[in-house]
Amino acid sequence: MRYLMMSKASATAPDEKLFAEMGAFIEELTAAGVLLATGGLAPEGIRLVSSGGELTITDGPFAETKEAVVGFALVEVRSKEEAVELGRRFRTIVGDGESVIQEVFGP
């Protein structure tokens, strides 16, 4: 099962300790073959909306900074519970904030 784990912006600025702990966590997931992809997201985006055959394209940013998704990890695990456990470990490292985990369907 694949899950997309997304993290929203936090008021806390990252420090060297956070970078070291996150680096070790990423190395662990990579070595275990669980981590498929990870990265940060730019606050700018492009919104495409189609309606009645018309396409509207708008440059971002769109959400308030505190609501924007700023990073992601795509993981392959055996169960939803395992994805939640990885999310719990991530939140323990980064501290206060919000993450969203969604199952990814398809091949």
UniProtKB/TrEMBL annotation:
Q: Where is the YCII-related domain?
A: 1-90
Q: In its UniProt entry, what is this protein called? A: YciI family protein
Per the record, the domain of life is Bacteria
User: Which SUPFAM superfamilies does the entry mention?
Assistant: Dimeric alpha+beta barrel
Q: Which family does it belong to?
A: Belongs to the YciI family.
Query: Mind telling me which Gene3D superfamilies this protein's record contains?
Result: Dimeric alpha+beta barrel
Pfam families registered for this protein in UniProt: YCII
PANTHER family linked: BLL7171 PROTEIN-RELATED
Q: Which InterPro entries does this chain map to? A: Dimeric_a/b-barrel, YCII
Tell me which positions the record assigns to the signal sequence. none
